[in-house]
Amino acid sequence: MSKFKYRFILLFISVLSFSCSSDSDKNDDGIGGIDKTANLQGLGDSASHLLSDAEFTSMNIEIVHVNGFAPSETALANFKNFLEERTFKPDGINISLRAVPSSGKAPFSIDEIVEIEKETRTIYNAGDEIAVYIYFADGKSEKDEENKFTLGSAFRNTSMVIFGGTIKDFASRPNAPNESDIEAAVLNHEFGHLFGLVDIGTEPQSDHKDDDNEGHCNVEDCLMRASIEFGSGIIDQIEGGRVPALGSHCIRDLQAAGGR
Question: Which of 60, 68, 183, 190 is most buried, by CB atoms within 10 Å?
Answer without folding.
Answer: 183
